[in-house]
Amino acid sequence: MASDVLCKRLFIANVCMIGESGGTWTLVDAGLSRTAAEIIRTAEERFGKGCRPQAIILTHGHFDHVGALETLMRYWDVPVYAHERELPYLTGQSDYLPPDSSVGGGLMARMAPLYPYRGIDLGRRVQSLPPDGSLPTLLGWRWVHTPGHTEGHIALFRDEDRVLIAGDAFTTVKQESAWAVVTQRREVHGPPAYFTSDWEEAGRSVKKLYGLKPLAVATGHGIPMHGGELLRQLGRLAVNFDQLAVPDQGRYVGNEAKR
């Protein structure tokens, strides 16, 4: 990714650690349940024994991005930040819409009814990100609102070198396919279809991120990509989002989507 950005794969989802080796750092997302020990081990290898992040920033609150969060919060006792529109799902006020196993094809999609979609309750331990787009612990970075996959989904972008952490606004693997997840074939795809509830917003978000012309990207699922191939594939997705990403039919597809 970059000298100060580490993308760590934890089973089917990724977390990112931003900071120079041995220095201060920030964690982005918190992976699946039972991955806290691996996150801590990776952090201590990079930043030193007993290290802790300045903060944890969430791209969104789906189960595979907050699974280890409560354990990490008890261990580190650091602030957690998310978009204000994501807070209801992180403070026990709302649940996400149920996943749709009929879209996307592949085993990962068919297993969607097993995926947790209830919100979690972090109470006052989670805070809203500043409305000006700044990130409290990351100078030179900004957050970009990228709704569609969830209402309060965000990406993180650094203008200086055009590094992007995209969360699930788009992915670099066909996440609906178990074979693709195992082989990790690197290619740009839309957000995980089974958990995307607003396809119009999702398409606008991909176009917004393509407009930033990122040179390197880490996504919530898949291997980081960079350079001309990233821009070519992301541009193709942005221009042809309805054909490449939006399912032909499904619970949240079209004007009569059932919520």
UniProtKB/TrEMBL annotation:
Superkingdom classification of source: Bacteria
Any coiled-coil regions, as ranges: none
Pfam families per the UniProt record, alphabetical: Lactamase_B
Protein name: MBL fold metallo-hydrolase
Domain Metallo-beta-lactamase: 12-221
Organism encoding this protein: Salinithrix halophila
